[in-house]
Amino acid sequence: MLIKFKSKASGDVIMLGESGKEMLRLLGKDADDSKGVFTADQLPDAIATLKQAIAVDKALPHPHQMDKPIDSKDDAGDSVHLYQRAVPVLELMERSQQENTYVTWGV
């Protein structure tokens, strides 16, 4: 399942189901809702929440950073962290806020 975040202010952000649901839970939305909206009035709080989550996640020691040398050839560098998935959604929300419009999500 895919979750697509959309806005008139920018291109779509498409996430795989579990990543998208994690993003919705983080932003205080019901992850089981197949569609919904962040109104222009809700965007400042959603943006602040995402920025805080990104900062916290970046500050965490990630296992591959602690256990593996940088030049390791295994798949340790392939994991995608919360902050990496959140940045495109954050940018979409910031552009939407600048244009005073909303962000929707759906399947």
Describe this structure in words.
The chain has 107 residues and is an alpha+beta fold. It has one domain. 46% of the residues lie in helices and 20% in strands. The protein contains 4 helices and 4 strands. It has a 4-stranded antiparallel β-sheet. A hairpin with a 2-residue loop joins strand 1 and strand 2. The chain is globular. About 5% of the residues have low confidence. It holds the Pfam family DUF1840.
Unreliable runs: 72-76
Biggest sheet overview: 4 strands, antiparallel
The tally of domains stands at 1
Overall pLDDT level = 87
How large is the share of residues in beta strands?
A: 15-25%
How would you describe the shape? globular
Protein name: DUF1840 domain-containing protein
Pfam family, one: DUF1840
